[in-house]
Amino acid sequence: MTDLQDSKLTEFEDNDQKPVGFGRMLRKEDARLLRGRGRFVDDVQLPGMLHLAILRSPFAHATIVSIDTSAAEASPGVKAVVTGETLKGLGLAWMPTLSNDVQAVLATDKVRFQGQEVAFVVAEDRYQARDALELIDVEYDVLDPVIDVRKALEPDAPIIRTDLEGKTNNHVFDWETGDEEETARVFAEADVIVQEDIVYPRVHPAPMETCGSVADFDPVEGKLRLWSTTQAPHAHRTLYAIVAGIPEHKIQVIAPDIGGGFGNKVPIYPGYVHSIVGSIVTGKPVKWMEDRSENLISTGFARDYIMRAEIAATNDGKILAIRTNVLADHGAFNGTAAPVKYPAGFFGVFTGSYDLKAAHCKMTAVYTNKAPGGVAYACSFRITEAVYLVERIVDALAYQLEMDPAELRLKNFIQPEQFPYTTKTGWVYDSGDYEPTMRLAMEMAGYDELRREQAEKRARGELMGIGISFFTEAVGAGPRKNMDILGLGMADGCELRIHPTGKAVVRLSVKTQGQGHETTFAQIIAEELGIPPADIDVLHGDTDNTPFGLGTYGSRSTPVSGAAAALVARKVRDKAKLIASAMLEVSVADLDWVKGAFQVKGDPGRSVTIQDIAFRTHGAGDLPDGVEGGLEAQICYNPSNLTYPHGAYICVVDIDPGTAEVKVRRFIAVDDCGTRINPMIIEGQVHGGLADGVGMALMEMISFDSDGNCLGASLMDYLIPTALETPDWETGYTVTPSPHHPIGAKGIGESATVGSPPAIVNAVVDALKPFGVRHADMPLTPSRVWDAMRGQATPPI
Amino acid sequence: MQVTMTVNGTEYTREIEGRMLLVHFLRDVLGLTGTHWGCDTSNCGVCVVWLDGEPVKSCTVLAAMAGGHEVRTVEGLANGAELDPIQEGFRQCHGLQCGFCTPGMLMTCRALLDKNPDPTEGEIREAISGQICRCTGYSSIVRSVRWTAVHEAEARNAKEEVAQA
């Protein structure tokens, strides 16, 4: 372990640069969070509030024969016990998922995964609600489950979705991208073809705050107030209106402080709907807060792709084509949260950062008796899977060609003059300059020196590995012409109001879960208007008080909502200019904008500040003809394209040959997210994603036994990295602004989660080269590494 | 049953069920919601508070067991408007993002510095290894503790110089 140098801390001495615009700035939200004054959903206490607990299925697949709730109803403090039959009567037993499937709010006919919601109890306190669950008597008729995804489409496989009329198999969808024929032709002409079967196991975002809600339905006003752990409050409100039939203006969704999301808090879970029903039935506010096991076994999982990857190249290392065949496990209901025209999310970017002649992907998605979900855990809509696939297979090619993996990548990068670059699967990369990013990472790592050290260690029988990954992300969904969720275009609104004294309030449609929106968005407005960030209040997460938009996930806040914030500020500035021209009695053309003020061209002594102008717009005296009072604007921003951040990661691992334990010694991450708004927050986003990568590569997996029992149902079984498994991260950056984003920024929230797993796995495989290992599947636990060292394939999941 | 304990210097007596966990007593009975709950299995550490000066996971302590003892929570760290140096360290070094694990981290790190005013990176990592943060990747938390150690040492030295003069 390296000793942290306090010299690193001295650069923070002038920590708060107090920028009026971009630069390192301490976070506005920290004041409350550091004092224990954050307001999370479970902190909400309303007068007369009741507590809700959910009875869940112990079986993966079973018919419900009967449910007896009489003992539970008689239990102390119990106010209501609700089953699927009750909901059926109200027409609420099923709800739409984000992928145009349906999901049971409470099971009526049968249960389809372990942990599925069967009944709920509302009681006076949380202990009483849990007690009553024990008294509900459910008789099940256990059915054979479908657990092995490879067997889901076998002719004799049990049919899971008997609720869907005419359904005779477990097929969800087939999806294809690229040109199959052309790819086959290029493969046929290649010198070298390398193939690997690569599994990206099921993992879980497991935010530290689990999911929950407090519903308060006022029967007199007919108004529902719902505090909930949601990353997308506006989208949720619209869906509640559709599901529950409550008019949209009578629903207020409030997402208060959120204790991490990582995609886990995008879907609508049955529990949220239960709390609403519970409040309507009892006439009281009702709180539901799931426990950790419930979070792990029933809410949105991530990945679960089985991928066959093939790469074709020339003998001298020119990559020609990549093709892949994917089997996707979607669980019992297709609850994938992705734009509807993208059933596999943005997996189509599996061509990576390389200039190929052809590419093709064929995918089949199936139902299994496991929890629904699939798009979560900071995955940028399945780009994690895509980047893992390409970066793993490129490394396997390097192994086969006996080429240095850095050299192989450098040889095949898309060149700067090729941007905007259309990939063979139709994605238009907006910008990129890959080689400097790669070179910087190699320089920071001391790449050549590391290779020398590795050679010496190998000669002594020590196991050291160096792994590289280079990724291009596609974030900021997205253009409404082809991206929507259940018909809702993926645009974001923004409203900006300048008060008479020049202070401001900006209202966002997106929602922070720790990313620091209250700081970053104040800085964007500050950059555009010259109002200090401290004078700008950022409101978000309350549908009654913010404009409509699709929320925060897929690294979309800065690319979409950040653009909206910059443009709304420019609208305000345009109006301010008209007023400034009247105040200074010069024409608009004679004004220069210097951050925070308009001044007369050639006469800088004559100027008015944005604060002067704000007061004038609300003050006495005439305004110019046709100009209304007030200084405010609103916008709904529809992005013209996604933004394409990129990065180069290098990981150094040591493996204990006696125990097969992997130690991440160093991790170097160079990211390019275009224009950098707050470098401190960017670094924080990267650090968090790198730790996720260590988790996925080495520790985390949600697996099941053959009966469908979830084997990752607590944090004792589902292992998340602590401070002991993670190194002191080394970060660097390059800047390639997005040409179509108003401030040139690209998303950064998920880059490291996307980019780091392949770097770590590539490092482990590199360390195992003396054993002839070309691939091993995640998570690379000591037992799996031990098996790989002995030439045994990773056991199937 | 009746339980009496001192929390952040104030004595409270309340009627509770014998099975009530300390974390629920603090949050639901006393309304001190700064202490969070995260896992039930003592793995995550978002519920860490001090019991007689020692960090404990309040999800696995019965409120009854804290009877007659002194509890300190994140709400008891700051001195009015003035943050405790460990809180300031987290602020300066971006040691928090969503803020959910932060109260527990702060309590553990404060306890570490009280026992060991100049901890190494390894000692800091060891001290917080029973706690999970999903956002920061831990480096910034380690830096926050080092920042605090350096600044508290400076403050001590300055005090000594004044005393000598």
UniProtKB/TrEMBL annotation, chain A:
<feature type="domain" description="Aldehyde oxidase/xanthine dehydrogenase a/b hammerhead">
    <location>
        <begin position="35"/>
        <end position="144"/>
    </location>
</feature>
<dbReference type="InterPro" id="IPR008274">
    <property type="entry name" value="AldOxase/xan_DH_MoCoBD1"/>
</dbReference>
<dbReference type="GO" id="GO:0030151">
    <property type="term" value="F:molybdenum ion binding"/>
</dbReference>
<dbReference type="GO" id="GO:0043885">
    <property type="term" value="F:anaerobic carbon-monoxide dehydrogenase activity"/>
</dbReference>
<keyword id="KW-0500">Molybdenum</keyword>
<dbReference type="InterPro" id="IPR016208">
    <property type="entry name" value="Ald_Oxase/xanthine_DH-like"/>
</dbReference>
<dbReference type="InterPro" id="IPR000674">
    <property type="entry name" value="Ald_Oxase/Xan_DH_a/b"/>
</dbReference>
<dbReference type="GO" id="GO:0005507">
    <property type="term" value="F:copper ion binding"/>
</dbReference>
<dbReference type="Pfam" id="PF02738">
    <property type="entry name" value="MoCoBD_1"/>
</dbReference>
<dbReference type="Pfam" id="PF01315">
    <property type="entry name" value="Ald_Xan_dh_C"/>
</dbReference>
<dbReference type="InterPro" id="IPR012780">
    <property type="entry name" value="CO_Mo_DH_lsu"/>
</dbReference>
<dbReference type="Pfam" id="PF20256">
    <property type="entry name" value="MoCoBD_2"/>
</dbReference>
<keyword id="KW-0560">Oxidoreductase</keyword>
<dbReference type="InterPro" id="IPR037165">
    <property type="entry name" value="AldOxase/xan_DH_Mopterin-bd_sf"/>
</dbReference>
<dbReference type="InterPro" id="IPR046867">
    <property type="entry name" value="AldOxase/xan_DH_MoCoBD2"/>
</dbReference>
<dbReference type="InterPro" id="IPR036856">
    <property type="entry name" value="Ald_Oxase/Xan_DH_a/b_sf"/>
</dbReference>
<dbReference type="GO" id="GO:0005506">
    <property type="term" value="F:iron ion binding"/>
</dbReference>
<protein>
    <submittedName>
        <fullName>Carbon monoxide dehydrogenase</fullName>
    </submittedName>
</protein>
From TrEMBL, chain B:
<keyword id="KW-0479">Metal-binding</keyword>
<dbReference type="GO" id="GO:0046872">
    <property type="term" value="F:metal ion binding"/>
</dbReference>
<comment type="pathway">
    <text>Alkaloid degradation; nicotine degradation.</text>
</comment>
<dbReference type="GO" id="GO:0051537">
    <property type="term" value="F:2 iron, 2 sulfur cluster binding"/>
</dbReference>
<keyword id="KW-0001">2Fe-2S</keyword>
<dbReference type="Pfam" id="PF00111">
    <property type="entry name" value="Fer2"/>
</dbReference>
<keyword id="KW-0560">Oxidoreductase</keyword>
<keyword id="KW-0411">Iron-sulfur</keyword>
<dbReference type="InterPro" id="IPR036010">
    <property type="entry name" value="2Fe-2S_ferredoxin-like_sf"/>
</dbReference>
<keyword id="KW-0408">Iron</keyword>
<dbReference type="InterPro" id="IPR012675">
    <property type="entry name" value="Beta-grasp_dom_sf"/>
</dbReference>
<protein>
    <submittedName>
        <fullName>Carbon monoxide dehydrogenase</fullName>
    </submittedName>
</protein>
<dbReference type="GO" id="GO:0016491">
    <property type="term" value="F:oxidoreductase activity"/>
</dbReference>
<dbReference type="Pfam" id="PF01799">
    <property type="entry name" value="Fer2_2"/>
</dbReference>
<dbReference type="InterPro" id="IPR002888">
    <property type="entry name" value="2Fe-2S-bd"/>
</dbReference>
<dbReference type="InterPro" id="IPR001041">
    <property type="entry name" value="2Fe-2S_ferredoxin-type"/>
</dbReference>
<dbReference type="InterPro" id="IPR051452">
    <property type="entry name" value="Diverse_Oxidoreductases"/>
</dbReference>
<dbReference type="InterPro" id="IPR036884">
    <property type="entry name" value="2Fe-2S-bd_dom_sf"/>
</dbReference>
<feature type="domain" description="2Fe-2S ferredoxin-type">
    <location>
        <begin position="1"/>
        <end position="77"/>
    </location>
</feature>
